[in-house]
From TrEMBL:
Keywords from the UniProt entry: Cell inner membrane, Cell membrane, Membrane, Signal, Transport
One annotated Gene Ontology cellular component of this protein: endomembrane system
Name of the protein in its database record: Nitrate ABC transporter substrate-binding protein
Pfam families: NMT1_2
Organism: Stappia sediminis
Amino acid sequence: MNTFRKASFTRRAVLAAVSAIAIGAFAPGATHAEWLDVEKDELTFGFIKLTDMAPLAIAYEKGFFEDEGLYVTLEAQANWKVLLDRVITGELDGAHMLAGQPLAATIGFGTQAHIVTPFSMDLNGNGITVSNEVWEMMKPHIPTGDDGKPVHPIKADALKPVVNKFKSEGKPFNMGMVFPVSTHNYELRYWLASGGIHPGFYSKSDISGQIQAEALLSVTPPPQMPATLEAGTIHGYCVGEPWNQQAVFKGIGVPVITDYEIWKNNPEKVFGLTKKFTEENPKTTLAITKALIRAAKWLDENDNANRAEAVEILSRPEYVGADAEVIANSMTGTFEYEKGDKRDVPDFNVFYRYFATYPYYSDAVWYLTQMRRWGQIADHKDDAWYDEVARSVYRPDIYLEAAKMLVEEGHVAEEDFPFETDGYREPTDAFIDGVPFDGRKPNEYIDALPIGLKSGQTVDGNEVVGG
C-alpha cells in the first residue's frame, strides 16, 4: 500500500498565516475566500492505479486540497472491493470509484451501503484489447481503408466469427473486466451485444454473469490485465489506461476500440463518499469538491497544455507507476491500436470540458439500465424508481454550490458549469449501435436494446421468463 506524507499542524499554521499573501502572489486576479470551517481537515482518500485517478493526484500535488484547508493522505488500494469496503468502514474518507459502485451499494447489489457522489471524475478513458491470436483471427472480417489500415470503429461483428470458432472447437472464449459493476463490464457487454455476441446474464442465485453467455466475462484487477492476457487465461479485456497501451508496448495484444467509440463522451469514474460522511461533514464535502473541480480544470485547460506534467506525476510509483511513455500514449491526445497505428483521439481522457465533472442523474440512470439489462437488478422497475435512485446517489446540489463558490473566488468561469440543467442530459444516439438513450425514459431504452432483459422479464435458472 502506498501512503503519502501527511501535512502537520505546524505546516497548516504557517500556510494559514501566509495564505492571503500567497494567493495575491501566485494567483493574480483571484479573489481569496476564507477557508470553509471544515468539520474534518485530515482526510484519507483511496484510489486504484489508473490514469483517471488524476484529479486526486493533481489536487494533492498542486495544493488545491491545502487551499481549502484540507490535509490529505492518498492511498493506492489493492482492488475495487477493498476500496469500497474501506470507505464503508470509515478507514477511507472517500475514494476514486467506479461509477456503478455507489449505485450498486445503495440498491444493495453486493455490499449494502448508501454511497453518494458530488463529483464525476472524467469522461472516456477505457479500451478493449484482444490477444495477438484473436486479432489475427479478427482481421479478415475488418474493412480496411485506402491506407491499408483497419477502419475504425471496429465492431464486435468482427469478433463474432472468432467466438463461434472457439465454440465449435469446444473452447470457452474468456474476457476480463475489472469489477461486476464497473463501466468496463457494461461497455464490454454493450460492445459484444451490439455485434450479436451474448455476454451473459446474472440472476438472484447466480452472480457469475455467465448465464447463456457466448463470451465468458470475469474479474481481473486492472494492473494484472496484460499478464493475464499474456498467460492465455483470457483472450481479451476491457480496462482503463494505461493497461491497454501496456499491451501494445509489450507486444502481447491489440486494442480494438475505445469507449469513446462505443459511447461518445461517456461518464467514467466518480468520487464516492458515504452519505453519513456528507451529512456529518457538509463543509468538508464542499471543500473536497472545490479542490477536485480545480484539479480537473488544470488537467484540461489551455488545450491540455498541462498533460505532459500530469503524465510525469502519474508515472510516479505512488500513483499509477507505469512508464511515462505508456501513460502519455493516451493521456496526451493520441491512442495506439495495432503497433505503429497511432491515431489522434483528443478526447480519450476528458476531465473538465463538456461539463465532465457534473454528476448528471441521466448518467446514473444509464448505469442502472445496464444493471437491469443483464439481471443484476433482477426485477422490473418503473421509470420513477430509476430517477429516485439517481437522485439519492448523485448530488449535483453539492457540486453546484462548490462551483458557485469557485466562480465567486475567480478560479473558474460561470460558463464552465450547467447551472440551469435539471440534471438530465439531452437524449443521445452517440452509441456504436445507434440506439437512442433518454435518461427520462429508461424502460423504453432497455426494451429497444436487442440483447438483454426486457420489461417484466427475469432470469430463472438458465432461462429468461416473463415479459
